[in-house]
C-alpha cells in the first residue's frame, strides 16, 4: 500500500545517489616465465657489489639451542594456554613455565615458551572466530544489558578485541570502515565504549587494534641482524632497496627477502644466499607455518 501524505498526494520517491565506488583493478599476477626471470635477476643482483668492494667468502659456525621435539612443544603448550585468556603473559604463567622447565628438564627457554604461547593464541583466535559470528546477536544483547566485553569474550573463549569489533558493528556505527575509523580514533566513541576499548587493548595480545608495537619489534630485530652482518664485513642488500628496484622494473615487488647476501656465505656448512628475520620462536603451529 502506497503511503499517503496528509494532503492526499502520493509522495515522490527520492532518487538514490549512485555512490558506488570505482573498483580498483586487481594486481596482475606474475606468469611462471616472469617469476623465473625475477629469480635470475636476484641471482644477478648478488653479483652487483657496492663500488670498490670485491666478493668475499665467509664460513660461520652458529651454535644453535638444544633441539626441541614436537612432544616438548605439546607438553609446553599445556602449560602456557588457559581458556579465555588472550592477554600478556602474567607472572603466574611465567612461574608455571619456569617450574615446568626445571621439573621436567624441558629444552625450551622462557622466551621460547612465551613466543609459542602467542602463536598458539593467534591460532586459537582464528579457529574460534566462528563462535563470535554464530553468537553475535546474543553477545550484543548481553552487552546492552551491561556485561563487559572481557566477560563476554571469556565466556566463548575468543579474543576480546574481536568480540569488541563485533559489538561495534551492531551499534549505530554502521559500515565496517566506520568501525575501523573509530578504532583508530577511540576518542570518538561513547564513554562506555572508550572504557571497553582500553580494557580489551590491555587484555588482548593477538587481535590488537594497533600493530605498531609488533612492527617496531620486527624492525628492531632486523636491525640487530644488519649490525651482525656489518660487524662480520658481509655485504648485503636490505628489503626496502629490493622493493624499490623491483617496482621500477616490474611495477611491483615480488621476491624481497629481508637481506639478500652479496658475498658467499656458509653457516654450519650450508650455503646461505638470503635471510628473513623472524622475531619469534618457529613452532609447529599452522599460524607460524
Descriptive keywords:
289 residues, globular, single chain, alpha+beta, 12 helices, 8% strand
Descriptive notes:
This protein has 289 residues and is of the alpha+beta class. Helices cover 50% and strands 8% of the residues. Strands 1, 2, 3 and 4 form a four-stranded mixed sheet that branches. Helix 6 (136-144) packs across helix 8 (160-170) and helix 7 (149-156) crosses helix 8 (160-170). The radius of gyration is 26 Å and the shape is globular.
* Helical stretch tally: 12
Counting DSSP E segments of at least 2 residues, the number of strands comes to 4
* Structural class by helix and strand composition: alpha+beta
For the report, how would you describe the main beta sheet? 4 strands, mixed
Overall 3D geometry? Answer: globular
Uncertain residue segments: 1-11
Provide the β-strand percentage band: 5-15%
Order of helical and strand elements: HEHHHHHHHHHHEHEE
Radius of gyration: 26 Å
* Rounded mean pLDDT score: 86
Query: CA-to-CA gap between the ends?
Result: 59 Å
The portion of residues assigned to helices is: 40-55%
Briefly say what this structure is.
The chain has 289 residues and is α+β, with helices and mostly antiparallel strands. The protein is built from twelve helices and four strands; from the N terminus they run αβααααααααααβαββ.
Amino acid at each position: 500500500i502506497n503511503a499517503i501524505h496528509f494532503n492526499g498526494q502520493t509522495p515522490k520517491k527520492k532518487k538514490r545517489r549512485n555512490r558506488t565506488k570505482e573498483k580498483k583493478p586487481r594486481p596482475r599476477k606474475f606468469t611462471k616465465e616472469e617469476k623465473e626471470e625475477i629469480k635470475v635477476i636476484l641471482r644477478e643482483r648478488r653479483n652487483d657489489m657496492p663500488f670498490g668492494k670485491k666478493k668475499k667468502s665467509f664460513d660461520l659456525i652458529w651454535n644453535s639451542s638444544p633441539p626441541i621435539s614436537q612432544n616438548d612443544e605439546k607438553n609446553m603448550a599445556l602449560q602456557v594456554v588457559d581458556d579465555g585468556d588472550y592477554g600478556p603473559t602474567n607472572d603466574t604463567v611465567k612461574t608455571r613455565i619456569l617450574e615446568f622447565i626445571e621439573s621436567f628438564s624441558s629444552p625450551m627457554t622462557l622466551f621460547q615458551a612465551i613466543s609459542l604461547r602467542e602463536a598458539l593464541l593467534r591460532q586459537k583466535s582464528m579457529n574460534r572466530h566462528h563462535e563470535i559470528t554464530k553468537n553475535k546477536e546474543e553477545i550484543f544483547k548481553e552487552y546492552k544489558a551491561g556485561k563487559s566485553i572481557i566477560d563476554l569474550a571469556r565466556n566463548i573463549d575468543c579474543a576480546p578485541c574481536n568480540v569488541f569489533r563485533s559489538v561495534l558493528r551492531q551499534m549505530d556505527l554502521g559500515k565496517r570502515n566506520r568501525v575501523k575509523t573509530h578504532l583508530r580514533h577511540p576518542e570518538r566513541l561513547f564513554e562506555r565504549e572508550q572504557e571497553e576499548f582500553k580494557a580489551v587493548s590491555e587484555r588482548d595480545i593477538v587481535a590488537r587494534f594497533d600493530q605498531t608495537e609488533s612492527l617496531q619489534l620486527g624492525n628492531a630485530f632486523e636491525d640487530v641482524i644488519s649490525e651482525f652482518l656489518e660487524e662480520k664485513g658481509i655485504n648485503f642488500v636490505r628489503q626496502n632497496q629490493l622493493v624499490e628496484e623491483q617496482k621500477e622494473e616490474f611495477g611491483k615487488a615480488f621476491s624481497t627477502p629481508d637481506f639478500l647476501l652479496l658475498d658467499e656465505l656458509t653457516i654450519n656448512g650450508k650455503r646461505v644466499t638470503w635471510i628473513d628475520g623472524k622475531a619469534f620462536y618457529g613452532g609447529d603451529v599452522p599460524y607460524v607455518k
